[in-house]
Amino acid sequence: MAQGQKEKAGGPGAFSRWMQHRANARMNRKVRKGRGSFMGMDVLILHTVGKRSGEPRETPVAWFPDEEGARLIVASGGGSQNPDWFVNLMAHADRASMELPGGEAVPVTPQRLEGADRAEAWQRIAAAQPRIAKYQSKSEREYPVVRLTPR
Questions:
Q1: What is the value of pTM for the model shown?
Q2: Residues 143, 136 contacting (CB under 8 angstroms)
Q3: Residue 12 located in a structural domain
Q4: Contact status, residue 98 vs residue 44, Cβ threshold 8 Å
Q5: Nearest alpha carbon to residue 87 among 127, 141, 35
Q6: What is the spatial distance between Cα 151 and Cα 137, in angstroms, rounded to a whole number?
Q7: How many domains does the chain have?
Q8: pLDDT tens for each residue of 49-85
Q9: For the purposes of burial, counting CB atoms within 10 Å of the CB of 143, is it exposed (0-12), middle (13-18) or buried (19 or more)?
Q10: Tens of pLDDT along 98-146?
Q11: Could you tell me how far CA 149 lies from the centroid of its own chain?
C-alpha cells in the first residue's frame, strides 16, 4: 500500500486486493475468449469509471437474466462495505457498459432495485444460486441488486 493510504475499515487488506486484481484479470481474459462462467454462474465484464480517479475499471461480475436483454448483478463481497465497483457504477452511471463473453462492450443504464422490485429479483437470484443467499445471510449489509439495461 502506498505511503499515506489507509485501509478502509471493513474492507480487504492490500494482499487480498492484489490477489483479487490478479483473479479479475484472469477472469476477464476468459470472458473475452468467450468462456464466461465461474462456479456455475454466468460472468460479464462490468466497465465503470473510478469515483475519485476517473480512471476506467473492468470487473468480472456474475449476472442473472432479467427482462428483455437486461442483466441483474449483485454487489456481494467487499466485506462490511459495498464493493468498489458498485460505488464507481453508482457515481458514474452514465459511463457504464457491460461486455458479454466474446462480445463488445455495450453501454448500459444501471438501476439499483429497491423494495418489491429488489425482493422479486432477489428471490430469482437466490433460487438460481443459493450460494449468494448464504453469503447474504452472513453479511451485516443488504447486498444491492442492480439491473443493467442496454442503451
A1: 0.85
A2: yes
A3: no
A4: yes
A5: 141
A6: 33
A7: 1
A8: 999 999 999 999 999 999 888 999 999 976 789 999 9
A9: buried
A10: 999 999 999 999 999 999 999 999 999 999 999 999 999 999 999 999 9
A11: 14
Query: What is the grid cell recorded at 41?
Result: 454462474
Query: What CATH code is carried by the domain that includes residue 141?
Result: 2.30.110.10
Give domain status of residue 101, yes or no.
Answer: yes
**Rounded-to-integer distance, Cα 42 and Cα 25, Å:** 16
> Is residue 45 in some structural domain?
yes
Using only C-alpha atoms, the chain has a radius of gyration, in whole angstroms, of 15
**Dihedral (C-alpha) 124, 125, 128, 130: value to the nearest 10 degrees?**
-120
Q: How far is Cα 102 from Cα 117, in angstroms, rounded to an integer?
A: 30
Indicate whether 1 belongs to any domain. no
Q: Which domain holds residue 97?
A: 37-150
d(CA 109, CA 96) in angstroms, rounded, equals 7
Q: What are the residues whose beta carbons fall under 8 Å from the beta carbon of 150, sequence distance 6 or more?
A: 69, 70, 98, 106, 107, 108
Tell me which DSSP letter residue 143 carries. Answer: P
